[in-house]
Amino acid sequence: MIALLLLGFFLSLDNFRVSIALGAFQFKWSRALRTAAVFGFWDGISPLIGALIGHYLGQVIGPLADIAGPIVLAGYGIFLIVRSLLTRITEEPEPNEGIVLLGMPLSLSLDNMIAGTGLGLFGFSPLFSAVVFGAITFLMSLIGLQLGKFIARFIPVRINLIAGIALLTVAIWLGVPALLGGN
Questions:
Q1: Using one digit for the tens of pLDDT, what is the confidence trace for 16-69?
Q2: Short-list 145, 155, 175, 165, CA closest to 72
Q3: Per-domain residue ranges for the chain?
Q4: Which residue spans traverse the membrane (predicted)?
Q5: How far from 149 is each of 86, 133, 152, CA to CA, in Å?
Q6: Within a 13 Å sphere around the CA of 69, how many CA atoms are in the beta-carbon half?
Q7: At what angle do helices 110-121 and 126-152 cross, to 10 degrees?
Q8: Do 64 and 175 meet the contact criterion of CB atoms below 8 Å apart?
């Protein structure tokens, strides 16, 4: 059980880092809850899917999972930076709902799918693992969103620019070890 909790915590850290960047948009409480719930849902459903798919697909997706997430984050981070630099400071649109609620959480959950495959092979309950991972990610994402919101109050620059730079930084942080062959 402790191993499952630790694994869930460490696998949720990518969502936590992204949530801090998204928190700069200072979402209302209801949107922060919805965003954290979607992050938690995808991080919960992924190990369930991974355990059900099995070991073979885990070996095929494994190398791609570590690269796909950072690519999506980098792409969105670059988009936010460019958009911020091309708009006036009074125009600070919130990020695209579809990307925040589907694209990012789904790409960040691929590692949980691989973990779920491994946990299934070790005999852990796929459903219990899914609930634990989802709950931990929900909490970590909600904390990250609130932390990002708090930090954004004290930084007198463009929110899109900060969020874009933060997402690009997280993408590099996650992607460089994957590209170099390590985790």
A1: 888 887 887 888 899 899 989 999 998 888 888 877 765 455 556 566 656 665
A2: 175
A3: 2-179
A4: 67-86, 98-121, 127-147, 159-180
A5: 23, 24, 5
A6: 31
A7: 150
A8: no
Structure tokens at 90: 């009074």
d(CA 92, CA 112): 33
Alpha-carbon distance values, 90 to 81, 83, 153, 160, 165 (Å): 15, 13, 16, 11, 19
How many other C-beta atoms can be found within 10 angstroms of the C-beta atom of residue 173?
13
Residue pair 43/105 in contact (Cβ under 8 Å)? The answer is yes
Structure tokens at 37: 């719930």
DSSP per residue, 90-157: T--PPPPHHIIIIIHHHHHTHHHHHHHHHHHHTT--HHHHHHHHHHHHHHHHHHHHHHHHHHHTT--S
Measured on CA atoms in the order 62, 96, 34, 144, is the torsion positive or negative? Answer: positive
The amino acid sitting at 39 is F
